[in-house]
Amino acid sequence: MNWVTATRHVFQPTLDTWLRRILGTEEFVIINHTDCDLLTFRDQDLVQKLELVTGVAAVPPALFHTFENLAANVRRQIHRVRSHHWIPEHISVRSFIYDVKTGGLAEVAP
Ligand SMILES: [Zn+2]
Q: Domains of the chain by range and CATH?
């Protein structure tokens, strides 16, 4: 057992208790929406504009997490939550896309 595994072994039950008993977390629900402004520009474009307007260089991590494909972004977010070592495996992670025009909510398969 290495340090990371040992640390996880020690803290995982604590985190599980914290999530479930203190926060009552049983499930993560990720919701993105159509017509999101983050689809309309790229991080680098905004960084350049901010640097131009403010005269101050952006300092990493100056990310705005823009994306080009809504469903792909949702799947990436599911993966990030699922693969985070603090999130117990039994916690459910579901994701949806909210359609701002229809009010519909469509579940996205991982
Ligand atoms: Zn948005």
A: 14-107 (3.40.1050.10)
Judging by beta carbons within 10 Å of its beta carbon (0-12, 13-18, 19+), is residue 95 exposed, middle or buried? buried
Tens digit of each residue's pLDDT (9 = 90 or more) over 62-88? 778 899 999 999 999 999 988 888 788
The pLDDT value given to residue 7: 46
- Please tell me the distance between residue 16's alpha carbon and the centre of ligand 1 in angstroms: 30
Q: Residue 5 pLDDT > 50, yes or no?
A: no
Ligand 1 centroid–CA 46 distance in Å is: 15
Token code pair at residue 38:
């983050």
**Distance (Å) from CA 38 to ligand 1 centroid:** 6
pLDDT for 22: 59
Please give the distance, rounded to the nearest whole angstrom, from the Cα atom of residue 31 to the centre of ligand 1. Answer: 10
